[in-house]
Design brief:
The complex is a heterodimer of chains A (about 100) and B (about 500). With about 100 residues, chain A is an alpha+beta fold. Among the domains of chain A are: about 40 residues, Histone, subunit A (Orthogonal Bundle); about 30 residues, no CATH class. Chain A has 3 helices and 4 strands; from the N terminus they run H-H-H-E-E-E-E. Chain A has a two-stranded antiparallel ribbon with strand order 1-2. Chain A is flat. Chain A starts with a helix and ends in a 7-residue tail after the last strand. Chain B has about 500 residues and is α/β, with parallel strands linked by helices. Chain B has a domain of about 350 residues: Amidase signature (AS) enzymes (Alpha-Beta Complex). Helix content of chain B is about 35%, strand content about 10%. At the A-B interface, helix 1, helix 2, helix 3 and strand 1 of A face helix 9, helix 10, helix 11, helix 12 and helix 13 of B.
């Protein structure tokens, strides 16, 4: 299936990446090339083949249900981004992260 | 000293012929001289580095040194190191100071090794030339107009230019082996699950694997002794007994069955590279190896399969970069959605965005079966090809990359041409097998790497196979003649 500019914009929105009209056009050409490469797969008959997600046949390990982590909120919040929109404050307040208002 | 093996350096440290501080300073001086041109390191912190060297000297004096105590190692900037800037080559993490250590970093710390600095890389390890790094490309020490390969291009240039004793890398589709080939040193990607991915910034989780990049097989074995081992913090880390990767280095290769896949010598391989590889195979015959022709019929499909699976996993892994808790947040935005979309548009480079978009597309409603599931089915066919091949041989050999180092800028606008760089390496990642690249000679003064692929958990044997070759050849001891920058004494 050939991709259109509208498809690129829709995918970019799903991926939460802003894309300009110019970038969408350039991206269309590159993605079409890459999808052409991927298309080679369709010639292979894979009926009945069990999909392989991992090379080793292992099961998910379980651990004891005990506390293993300590609270490191302060250390982790040091990496918080700047608030933006002209503010040079970090996007944290009273141990919480600040984001634009989502509930009116 | 800068060209000495890890074993020699370790002995010199033990005999107090040199201190770790002196050794570390020698490498730091070399970095000072050559890094401004080569751009292999993107984070240096002399105080932290020298403090580790001093601590190593105390440990050596106390008689409690481990084999790598006091040895200066370069760390790929994909590994979180507490208090170090950890960027993964991206603007998204340009100001991120890691608040914890990756398992690999803790292992080197526990061994008493010295962290020389963080090395440049393709953004989020997506690239084969180091040109997608937000911090600029890396020059190949053999020819400054050429790329070092990627994604571990900074570690590769640091090893080749002797700006470290050894380095770490990661390999999702060839990112240790292809740069090892293009820069002329020894690199090993272990079996998937042997080295913990904890604290290693995720690209494609079912393929990512860390490994050593060093001057020789023996050095890689010593590095593996530190890096490998079970870690409960990585759910895909394999529970296995600790191994000594040096244990088989000196075994004879008499009777070793070497499989040559005909698909690795077909169209697309540079003729001068093929010649070097053939000469290396001839050397192995002299060492007693027996050559077996094998076939890996689905090799050509490994690239299409990879470019479904890796972007799909990447689009999921990289969804965490939303500008909320860490990483880049746009300077201007109107609401939450706008903040996400602008932060990600600004924070990611072109290649990373392309891969996120491909991943999002192949995972989107209606396409999952045609792309993702189909790719996982062919992945099994590729793994079965190897299973069949290993019934007839002990190791597989071929080229690591289709050509020698290419010119900077040459493939940057053609993603598909760039992706073909990994034609010989990707299939082992898909199968989860170990692979390595060792220096096998030169073509037009540029290094050529021989790839050695082993069966699952056969790293010790592969290191033996590489070490025996390095006992009778000297390609791995060659180093580029670096021009001192103008104005340097």
């Amino acid at each position: 299936m050939a991709l259109s500019i509208e498809d690129i914009k829709k995918i970019a929105h799903l991926a939460r990446i802003e894309i300009s009209e110019n970038d969408a056009t350039a991206t269309l050409t590159k993605l079409t090339g890459i999808l052409g490469l991927i298309e080679q797969m369709q010639a292979v008959n894979t009926e009945g083949i069990v999909p392989m997600s991992h090379s080793q046949d292992v099961v998910q390990r379980l651990r004891e249900d005990v506390v293993t982590k300590t609270n490191q909120r302060e250390a982790f919040q040091k990496a918080a981004p700047l608030l933006g929109n002209g503010s040079i404050q970090q996007a944290v307040d009273s141990g919480l992260y600040l984001v634009p208002k989502v509930i009116e | 000293m800068i060209n000495s093996s890890l074993k020699t350096l370790s002995q010199m440290l033990a005999k107090k012929e040199v201190s770790s501080v002196e050794l570390t300073q020698a490498f730091l001086n070399r970095i000072d001289t050559f890094n401004p041109d080569i751009n292999a390191y993107i984070a240096l912190d002399q105080d932290k580095t020298l403090a580790q060297a001093k601590a190593a000297d105390v440990r050596i004096a106390a008689g409690s040194a481990a084999p790598l105590t006091g040895i200066p190692i370069a760390q790929k900037d994909i590994f979180c190191a507490n208090g170090w800037k950890t960027t993964c080559g991206s603007k998204m993490l340009a100001n991120f100071v890691a608040p914890y250590d990756a398992h690999v970093i803790s292992q080197f710390d526990a061994a008493g090794a010295v962290n020389l600095g963080k090395t440049n890389m393709d953004e989020f390890a997506m690239g084969s030339s180091n040109e997608t790094s937000y911090f600029g490309g890396v020059k190949n020490p053999w020819d400054f107009t050429r790329v070092p390969g990627g994604s571990s291009g900074g570690s590769a240039a640091a090893v080749a230019a002797r700006m470290c004793a050894a380095a770490t890398g990661t390999d999702t589709g060839g990112s240790i082996r292809q740069p090892a080939s293009l820069c002329g040193f020894t690199g090993l990607k272990p079996t998937y699950g042997v080295v913990s991915r904890y604290g290693m910034i995720a690209f494609a989780s079912s393929l990512d694997q860390a490994g050593p990049m060093a001057k020789s097989a023996e050095d890689c074995a010593l590095m593996m002794n530190v890096m490998a081992g079970f870690d409960e913090r990585d759910s895909t880390s394999l529970q296995r007994d600790k191994e000594d990767y040096t244990r088989d280095l000196n075994k004879s290769l008499n009777g070793l069955r070497v499989g040559l896949p005909k698909e690795f010598f077909a169209e697309g391989l540079d003729a001068s590279v093929a010649k070097v590889i053939e000469a290396a195979i001839a050397e192995y015959k002299k060492l007693g190896a027996e050559i077996v022709e094998i076939s890996l019929p689905n090799t050509g499909l490994s690239i299409p399969v990879y470019y479904v699976l890796a972007p799909a996993e990447a689009s999921s892994n990289l969804s965490r970069y939303d500008g909320v808790r860490y990483g880049h947040r746009a300077a201007e935005y109107t609401d939450l959605m706008d903040m996400y979309c602008k932060s990600r548009a600004e924070g990611f480079g072109a290649e990373v965005k392309r891969r996120i978009l491909i991943g999002t597309y192949v995972l989107s409603a209606g396409y999952y079966d045609a792309y993702y599931l189909k790719a996982q089915q062919i992945r099994r066919l590729i793994a079965q090809d190897f299973e069949e091949a290993f019934k007839h041989c002990d190791v597989i050999m071929g080229p690591s990359a289709p050509s020698t180092a290419f010119k900077a800028g040459e493939k940057v606008d053609d993603p598909v041409a760039m992706y073909l760089q990994d034609i010989y390496t990707i299939s082992t990642n898909l199968a989860g097998l170990p692979g390595m690249s060792i220096p096998a000679g030169f073509s037009n003064n540029l290094p050529v790497g021989l790839q050695i692929i082993g069966n699952y958990f056969d790293e010790a044997r592969m290191l033996n196979v590489a070490h025996q070759y390095q006992q009778v050849t000297d390609w791995h001891t060659r180093m580029p003649e670096l021009q001192l920058p103008q104005g340097t004494k």
